[in-house]
Amino acid sequence: MKNVAILLSGRGSNFLALSDAIEAGQIPARIVLVVSNKPDAPGLIHARERNYEAVCIPSAGIEREAYDRQVVEELSARQVDVVCLAGFMRLLSSWFVQQYPRQILNIHPSLLPAFPGLHSQKQALEWGAKVSGCTVHFVDEKLDHGPIIVQRSVPVLDQDTEETLSARILEQEHQIYPEALKLVCEAKVRVEQRRVLIRK
Ligand code: GRF
What we know:
Blueprint: E1 2-8, H1 13-23, E2 29-36, H2 42-49, E3 54-56, H3 64-77, E4 82-85, H4 94-99, E5 104-108, H5 120-127, E6 131-138, E7 148-155, H6 162-185, E8 189-192, E9 195-198
Parallel strand pairs: 1-2, 1-4, 2-3, 4-5
Antiparallel strand pairs: 5-6, 6-7, 8-9
Helix pairs in contact: 1-6
The structure holds 5-O-phosphono-beta-D-ribofuranosylamine.
């Protein structure tokens, strides 16, 4: 059983998808902490409604590593094994990443390495991509860059807007994030260079 922490900044729909899968017994994990850097994040409210321990550690005006040290202190106090970034809108410091080698996951709404950074769905539309999708990857020291655990593609349709494409991708995000966390918690993944190899 792995102790999982969720870090979020907003809506929290990926957190809810992870929580649903864990509570349904599909992943050998328990959510021991939810952290938000935004006091008014809806995800923080959902976490409290589901009776998870949930803390807000405001990040405004705090230097990156000083902030990360506050977060890691909370994680260490709860013996966290795996950290899931779920719409956490901050870059982690190298120091943070080094505390949890290959134990920090992120979900990104594009097929990386295409369209990293913000507004990936809008980037995909404007680029004229015919497919896009989502990626769960290990977090390393660069933005949206670490080894890829699971990806899923969706078509980009002629009539798509940023909203309709985002909704189609989000549906797949909610599928693949639990799948990826399950693989990690069951220790079924091995990383060789950039490749994440999965034991059946
Ligand atoms: C998702 O699109 C995720 O891929 C990106 O931020 C968004 C978070 O949405 N990293 P939610 O807060 O999980 O609903």
